Amino acid sequence: MSETQHESVRLAPDPTPGLTKVGGDTPVVSPPARRRRRKGIGWAARLEIALMTGPTLIVFLSFVILPVAMAAYYGFFSWQGYGPAEDFVGLRNYLLIFEDSTFIDALRHNGIIVVLSLLLQGPAAILLALLLNRQMRGQTLIRVLVFIPYVIAEVVVGTGWSLMLHGEGVVNAVLGKIGLGWLQNDWLADPKIAIWTLMGILTWKYIGFAVILFLAGLQGIPEELTEAAAIDGASYWQIQRRITLPLLGPTIRIWAFLSMIGALQLFDLVYIIWGQYVAATAGTSTMATYMVANGRNAGEYGYGNAVAVVLFFISLFAALLYQRFILRRDTEGAITGGRR
């Protein structure tokens, strides 16, 4: 073997990493390199986390978890709201809830309100948001006027609409003055139209929140996408259907979640306009009005607490289902940046 060949043998890399030749051709395994251990979180970082999350955790446990636990506890007793709860009835209160046809009607009304809120407020709010997102005169004024009903207190809204919609109210008077007397009706007491009256009031009050939310979502859509689509010959409505609405999807799903939970817990407007007794006969009662009427006002605080627990778990179950099947991809994308 020539000197050049000997030199090439000495310079050739070892094809097997981790093996070392000792005294000839016998390979031995070299010890692996030590991995660096990850340093744990120091006491300073733990103290910082505790100080940042501690107050929030205390408030959450005190005002959310503890009240629910106490309500569930009192739901096992026949309790009138004063003195210690001693008359233990077990699951009787919880069983009576689902045996009461009035509660089943209230639950059905809540379901109708959830569906109609999504079907009525959603499309109308999207159209208004698309309109107000364009440059036009009086744009700021129109936005303010649309949003004002949302910030008005429910007591004011309920009192005002109840005065306008009763049999001798402004609405029927105006209809008679303009020759539409055949449209006059008892808007609040007629079971056939009372639920639609309620939906009109809810839409008028809460559509402003949806419009503002959608406008905020529209601001995050890059103008370059719509401009490129317009250059390619897409019409205005094609741009909205193919580009704007898909990119607005996360905002729409968040709004739908908030609307659903609010509809399940609806109480104030129904109670102010219809009261605890008329709401049941007019077909506008909800689970929350049922809870107050048959719990506190009836002196059955144990039963009322049981209704509150049932309402809580129905809302929780609906929220978890929505999170699992609809909001999951949005939350995963926000937290992990999407799966590969």
Automatic annotation (TrEMBL):
<keyword id="KW-0813">Transport</keyword>
<feature type="transmembrane region" description="Helical">
    <location>
        <begin position="193"/>
        <end position="216"/>
    </location>
</feature>
<dbReference type="InterPro" id="IPR051393">
    <property type="entry name" value="ABC_transporter_permease"/>
</dbReference>
<comment type="similarity">
    <text>Belongs to the binding-protein-dependent transport system permease family.</text>
</comment>
<feature type="domain" description="ABC transmembrane type-1">
    <location>
        <begin position="107"/>
        <end position="322"/>
    </location>
</feature>
<dbReference type="InterPro" id="IPR000515">
    <property type="entry name" value="MetI-like"/>
</dbReference>
<keyword id="KW-1133">Transmembrane helix</keyword>
<feature type="transmembrane region" description="Helical">
    <location>
        <begin position="252"/>
        <end position="274"/>
    </location>
</feature>
<keyword id="KW-0812">Transmembrane</keyword>
<feature type="transmembrane region" description="Helical">
    <location>
        <begin position="144"/>
        <end position="164"/>
    </location>
</feature>
<dbReference type="Pfam" id="PF00528">
    <property type="entry name" value="BPD_transp_1"/>
</dbReference>
<dbReference type="GO" id="GO:0055085">
    <property type="term" value="P:transmembrane transport"/>
</dbReference>
<keyword id="KW-1003">Cell membrane</keyword>
<feature type="transmembrane region" description="Helical">
    <location>
        <begin position="43"/>
        <end position="76"/>
    </location>
</feature>
<feature type="region of interest" description="Disordered">
    <location>
        <begin position="1"/>
        <end position="34"/>
    </location>
</feature>
<feature type="transmembrane region" description="Helical">
    <location>
        <begin position="301"/>
        <end position="322"/>
    </location>
</feature>
<feature type="transmembrane region" description="Helical">
    <location>
        <begin position="111"/>
        <end position="132"/>
    </location>
</feature>
<keyword id="KW-0472">Membrane</keyword>
<dbReference type="InterPro" id="IPR035906">
    <property type="entry name" value="MetI-like_sf"/>
</dbReference>
<protein>
    <submittedName>
        <fullName>Sugar ABC transporter permease</fullName>
    </submittedName>
</protein>
<dbReference type="GO" id="GO:0005886">
    <property type="term" value="C:plasma membrane"/>
</dbReference>
